[in-house]
Amino acid sequence: KDPAAAASLYDHDLEHVTPYSYEALLESYDVKVEYSPGATSAYYRFTFPAGKDGHVVFSMSRNPVVEVRAPDQVAGGEDPPFGPRMYYCAVFSKPFAAHQTWKGEVSGAAVDFARSNEPETVDVKSNILSGASAEKMLRGASQMAGRGNGWKNPFGDGQASKLIIESVVIS
After folding, report:
1. How confident is the model over 164-169, as a mean pLDDT?
2. What is residue 145's three-state secondary structure?
3. How far is CA 50 from CA 10, 31, 131, in A?
């Protein structure tokens, strides 16, 4: 229920970052986390320690709504610090062994997985709610496609390829 209490240590020296993926080891739990981001989606893979149950926690704090909608699905929404309300749906590769949700200043869901030697994958999609009319949908799609999200790019400033080519050409 307290996101800080569930946080994990990790070592930046053990991160693997490319323009299309990120990988880190959550040292406090010995969980390998990998993801590939998209403009309004992400694909995650969690590898839990052999012989131990797996747990994934969702938490939100700005007018949040979180619900378990199916045995393998968590959905919800919150008000971001910019723009309209955002909604998401996370679909896991296997059903949960157990789950719980909570509401309050911070709301969330925790989903548990039985011991498995296979990684757990999660397909997450997000978007704004634009209404049912074609006009509103087009306006919402345009807004999502053209908006700046205000987030710092975790993969750098987009100049890596240019720097590599300049380095090779100069060498």
Report:
1. 66
2. helix
3. 19, 10, 45
Q: What angle do CA 31, 33, 158 make, to 5 degrees?
A: 150
Q: Record the pTM.
A: 0.70
- Amino acid at the residue 51: G
With beta carbons less than 8 A apart as the criterion, state whether 18 and 155 touch. Answer: yes
- Using DSSP bridges, classify how beta strands 31-37 and 41-47 pair: parallel, antiparallel or unpaired: antiparallel
Q: Could you give the percent of the chain with pLDDT greater than 90? A: 21
- CB neighbourhood size of 108 (10 A): 22
**Helix, strand, coil % in the chain, rounded to nearest 5:** 20, 40, 40
Question: Over the stretch 43-65, which tens digit does the pLDDT of each residue have?
Answer: 899 999 988 889 898 888 888 88
Give the residue from 145, 94, 98, 97 showing the smallest Cα distance to 121.
Answer: 94
